[in-house]
Specification:
Layout (H helix, E strand, L loop, with lengths): L3 E10 L5 E10 L20 E10 L19
Length: 77
C-alpha cells in the first residue's frame, strides 16, 4: 500500500435496525505479505445484527493498494 490505510469496521444494530455502536478492531497502514489479522470486539448488549466492512482508503496523493480477503470468520468467544 502507498498512501493508503486498510481497516475492518464493525457496525452494530438493534432489532429495529438502528445503529447502536461501532468498532474498528483492525487497522493497517503498512505494506505486508500475506498475514493473518485478527481482532476482538464486544458488541453492545442490545445489538442483534452485526455488519462487517472491509475498507481500503486513500490517505494521500496517488494512494493505492490491494487487499485480498480469504476466509473471513467471526467466532463467538
Amino acid at each position: 500500500m502507498r498512501n493508503a490505510d486498510f481497516y475492518v469496521a464493525i457496525h452494530y444494530f438493534d432489532q429495529n435496525y438502528r445503529l447502536v455502536g461501532a468498532d474498528t478492531p483492525v487497522h493497517v497502514n503498512t505494506s505486508m505479505d500475506w498475514t493473518r489479522l485478527q481482532g476482538q470486539f464486544i458488541p453492545p448488549p442490545n445489538a442483534t445484527l452485526v455488519r462487517v466492512h472491509f475498507h481500503l482508503s486513500e490517505t494521500g496523493t496517488n494512494g493505492k493498494g490491494k487487499v485480498y480477503i480469504a476466509n473471513p470468520k467471526l467466532k463467538r468467544m
